[in-house]
Amino acid sequence: MRDIQLKELLEAGCHFGHKASRWYPKASGYIFVEREGIHVIDLAQTKSGLENAGKYLTELAKNGGTIIFVGAKKQAKTVIEDAAKRAGVFYLTQRWPGGLLTNFAILKKNLDRVKELESRITDVSFTKKERLLAKRKMEKLLVLYGGLLGMEKVPEAVFIVDIKKFAGAIREAIATNLKIVAICDTNVDPEPVDYPIPANDDAVGSIKIIVDYLADAIIFGKEEFKKIQDELKKKKMENDQPPV
Questions:
Q1: pLDDT at 134 over 70
Q2: CB of 89 within 8 A of CB of 218?
Q3: Last residue of some domain: 136, 153, 170?
Q4: What PANTHER family does this protein's entry cite (predicted)?
């Protein structure tokens, strides 16, 4: 993985925090200075937090682990979805469905329902009206769960862009012992986060540079995972060879 440069973070606007009147006291360690009533984030800590999170996600992917990218801010949805698809990970850009982590059976039921409706749409044994109704129901479910299709178990980690909006996700991640990676602006509590990335969580440029870096870290880890699996297969084939 490449080293992220402070200049890149500066140009992306990662250093802009919130108004000093809206700060969260436990975020004080990330604040470099206050200027004109706005807190400025220490980019050295942004760089350190981002690289630590990247190393963790590389190791997670290298060991075959899974993660969900989460964020519902309007300006972040496309960025999150594109990066998640590129890295081949699950994502959620709508409201948090309660019980996603703590009651996975309910989520699995909804994901299976999507498959069932998809099958019904092309099944000519159903009437045209029934197939149209199935299509509408499937489209509604896809809005909520489209980025989670294929999930067969609770993931090992969650990456959250806007933790203030996803307090429920934080609670469920803690309850299920998932690792939490998150962007932590100056108005949120970073304490529950295992891998906090102090940065602006509103500006598109800030969100994009962080999300893309983490996606690259996962891709790198997956490439390492594939190399390990290929090597194991090769050794197995060699061991299965009959003696000459």
A1: yes
A2: yes
A3: 153
A4: 30S RIBOSOMAL PROTEIN S2 PROKARYOTIC AND ORGANELLAR, SMALL RIBOSOMAL SUBUNIT PROTEIN US2M
